[in-house]
Amino acid sequence: MNFATLASQLFIGLSRGMIFFIVSAGLTLIFGVLRITNFAHGSLYMLGAFIAYSISTFLGQGPNGFWLALLIAPLAVMLISLVIERGLLRFIYNQDHLMQMLLTYSLVLIVGDLVKIVWGTEFKSMNVPTILRGSFNLWGASLPLYNAFLLIVGPVVALGLWFFLSKTRLGKICRATATDREMVDILGIDSTQVFALVFAMGGWLAGLGGALIAPTTTISIGMDANILIYAFLIVVIGGLGNVWGTLISSIIMGVGEAFGILFIPGVAIIIPYIIAGVLLIIKPSGLLKSAW
Amino acid sequence: MASMVGNKKSHYLFRIGSMLLITVLLVSGCGSSPNATTDKKNVKVGIVDTYTGGAAIYAQDSLDGFKLAIKEIAAKGGPTIEFVTRDDEFKPDKSTSWAKELVMNEKVDFLAGTTNSAGSLAVSQFAKENKVPFIDWGGMSDKITGAAGNRYVFSTIPNTAIIGKAGAVQLSKLPYKKIWLAGSDYEYGHSVITNLWSNLTTLKPDVEKMGETWWSVGETDFTPYINAIRSAKPDVLVVGTGGADMVAFMKALKATGLTQEIPVWAHTCYDPATLRPLGDQAPVNVMGTNPYLSNYPDTAENKAFVAAFKKEYNREPAAFALYGYMGGEFLGQAIEKAGSTDKEKIIDAMEGSTIDTPVGKATLRKEDHQVAIPMSYGVIAKVNGKITATDLHTLSPDEIMPSVDAILKSRSQ
Questions:
Q1: When comparing pLDDT for A97 and B122, which is higher?
Q2: Which domain holds residue B395?
């Protein structure tokens, strides 16, 4: 076990954490502001990957295809989210949690079947653009360039979210709604419009996560369930509705898993749950203050 | 929030009721039954398989293969075989409940399916208890016709014992000593690796296991696993994974450039289902085995099968199409040979029977009801700018079938 191995594994863990963060940040925003357990978040992520695949394939799997897919796919998912929020979710804000779960879970099944009807069952793959192909050398360990790209995108998204939430009026309203919905209503702000905005943003983040992961993996039905488990673990560890808690727990999860794979490969599969268990025993309310 | 519920109770019940109705409609819509000719009793097959989710591609292929077989049989003046399908969603409990429903409501004579090995084992148990024969064309676990085998279960798919033995034969011909084992953490992954390792240590006692890595099914990011294995510097990495994970794993091999340093073995690595989505991003220097390719073996029988399948479904048949096809062919031949639609007589006729298939003669072994077909092995390389399987060789069934003695011994334990 030399330094290069440790350093490269740390680097890989961080880039893994970035995808976790982008997807979980959307889930935690929706959690915090809408107070809805959005099971369909994984489905939106899957849609992002499939739409990115279609755009990239339509443009001949070239480099332009990837960049355009990265731009358009999250926006498309954002639009779909908006339709879901205005068409379905807004009618159940005052229903109890069971109803909300039933609705978002039914969306999981519906989106799963729709994806199968539209894209079929065959495994799909989209290309990494030429500029991000191949690997580079980090203290003697060769690492995929694409992971370095993820390490740039992750912090950019985090910065953007920080700017939106703390520096813009809309962002401040979002945070206020998360803290005290009634007070926001009393102040004459239409909180349902805030809900629509936040749900669309959450969808955009899920779609971005899907589009970012698409070139590195198989795009297939079933990818929704896998990410959802991670996203829920991360959101709970980070503190429900707290975006910065999500950032911290994503990094812990990504890096922790990478080192677990290195040191105890035989039981790597249970590492996320060990991490979640230990952190929740230490801080049952989540790492940072929950929005509720 | 919760106080609203009481006021809206009737509203609520209505919604739940309509949801249930939709569910029932969706479920009943899954089945499809072709028109039956009624002059004599037809054999009816109830197919329980995974038509939704990540494994749906296999169920679709085997169903299309089966449909082609029964169509050809009927066209030749053979017995008419009917079928209905049910979706088990890759859940073993659903496999058995559908199997029950098919036998009780649909009155099927035979059961067939299912891609989930645990589902196949559960249906096999049900088949044994209710004396309804079950043709497994999707579950690859060696337990199905091995330790848990019985009179009522047949397998037309090469199982993990055969895959593991074939891989061991291939690897034993190569100079690798230090071996790292890895795979998806589920029945198929573990079973392939266990079988391969026990056969390899028999064929080549000086191999050494350096370590093991297991990842969860549906893993999207393999770089941390590959980086960790690379740092251990084994001679060869042996992988037991399938489906969508296979494609993702191959992509990660390419992105990390692992195969430039360490060769990799994986069953079905050069299958079109893996190579087609990868395009020019497929890694080279990956070895593997495969029971069927549409262009290998390069024989008239295979060409005829591919042409017939293509004409019917406008795509090339993959391995699972062959498994479903063989299921239909074995059944059709057995009904004819038995001259009866009596289940026990059909079982007797199926035991030890041989049919001609696109890959040559296929036999359902009398002792364990496991199909014996040849297997190819080769390596992925770039030929004339195109990434494809090269250096293909055929292993005969004698070389790769587990011994009958070992199977009967495992059943008596």
A1: B122
A2: 161-290+374-412
Sorting pLDDT into bands at 50, 70 and 90, what band is B32? very low
Number of independent structural domains in chain A: 1
- Note the pLDDT of residue B214: 92
pLDDT tens per residue across span A176-223: 888 888 888 899 888 888 899 999 999 999 999 999 999 988 898 888
ipTM: 0.84
Residue B302 above 50 pLDDT? yes
Q: Quick check: A102 and B252 CB within 8 A?
A: no
Q: Is residue B10 part of a domain?
A: no
| Residues A125, B279: C-beta atoms closer than 8 Å | yes
Nearest CA in chain A to B23: A106
Whether residue B145 is contained in a domain is answered as yes
B277–chain A nearest CA distance, Å = 5
Q: Domain span at residue A239?
A: 10-127+162-282
Confidence of residue A26 (pLDDT cuts 50, 70, 90): very high
**Quick one: pLDDT band at residue B35, thresholds 50, 70, 90?**
very low
B13, exposed or middle or buried, with CB in 10 Å at 0-12, 13-18, 19+?
Answer: exposed
* Residues B275 and B368 both lie in one domain: no
Least confident of A81-90, B48-57, B334-343: B48-57
Rounded to a whole number of angstroms, the distance from the CA of B185 to the nearest CA of chain A is 8
Say yes or no for a CB contact (<8 Å) between B273 and A127: no
Residues 129..188 of B with a Cβ closer than 8 Å to A: which?
Answer: 182, 185
Tell if the CB–CB gap between A128 and B4 is shorter than 8 Å. no
Number of domains in chain B: 2
| Least confident span in A138-152, A202-216, B174-188, B333-347 | A138-152
Residues B324 and B351 in one domain: yes
In this complex, the residue of B60, B243, B277 whose CB is nearest that of residue A125 is B277
Task: Judge: B281–A128 Cβ closer than 8 Å, yes or no.
Answer: yes
Q: What is the CATH number of the domain that holds B230?
A: 3.40.50.2300
For residue B4, tell me if it sits in a domain: no
pLDDT over 60 (residue B151): yes
Nearest to B215 among A216, A225, A268 (CB): A268
What is the arithmetic mean of pLDDT over A107-131? 88
Q: Is the pLDDT of residue A266 over 90?
A: no
| Binary contact (B52, A217; C-beta < 8 A) | no
B277 touches chain A (CB under 8 A): yes
* Interchain pair B57, A121: CB under 8 A: yes
pLDDT value, residue B10: 52
Which pLDDT band, with edges at 50, 70 and 90, does B23 fall under? low
Among all chains, which residue has been given the structure tokens 């991360």?
Answer: A234
